[in-house]
Amino acid sequence: MGLQIFGALMLGGLMGLFGQGIRSVVGLKTMVDQANAAGADQQDMFRAARFLVSLLIGFLAGIAATIVVGIQKLIDLKPDDIQLLLGIAAAGYAGADFIEGFMSQYLPGGKVAAKPGEGGVTNAQFDDIKKRLDQLGAGIHTPDDKLNQFPHIRPGSSQAVFRAKAPVVMADLIKDFGLTKNQAAGILGNLGVECAGFTVMQELHPIAGLGGYGWAQWTGPRRTEFMTWCTDHGLDKNSDQGNYGFLKHELETDFKGVIDLLKNTDTLEDAVIVVLKHYEMAGVEATSHRLDWAQLALNAFNTKLVA
Model's pTM, two decimal places? Predict the structure, then answer.
């Protein structure tokens, strides 16, 4: 029996490692894209020790998830019961956030308070992962599932706000960076998806931590940099001045390569894809919806010009 328990825990740990491995691969791709956009050496940005630690965290999260869902369920696991394994992999993907939630609910005195501005899982987020594990249907969403979860990424009731603001932002981008209308609209198309047409500043359903914030839904270190930049410049993080100011700052510094790529595009679709791939680097691409927002921005801009 002891060997069965050990085997179940190891299987859970390996599935957690698998989940964190997926997250690490996505992170490595993002790092490569950022390095290319910034003209930096990829080797200077990669840290092998951090990569190994993240995999270890995934392994431990997988073990914690196995305990949560019940060790016996893994012992009795059938070969075709893929959903349970994917659920544990999802806990590994959440990594340190899942472990923190596990500690806060299952270990005496284990609650860890997140510091202001840092990530951290809430009890509600932990309960959501646990619920999905209990239902054996957790974690790995297809892009279509994600679109159904976040209907706000489609142009809808927020069109009025977007139509009013988009021409102003496009005019600033054209003036500051020498872009064409299509190129500027490509940026707006991505922003439209990310912040629901300038109506949602805080990410509604973050997978872990604090999620994204602002027009571009800046996440992780970029979220922190955005907040710091606004504070240093005496600007409200919800203001148009703060959001456009930081967008311009990034496009002039760490992401200046995006402007060069953007200037090589002619069509609206190509402009949308360049910004998506090299600036947003979003987990959910939703390219057709970004193109819808971009067309909406371009139409609003042209209407304003005529008026």
Answer: 0.55
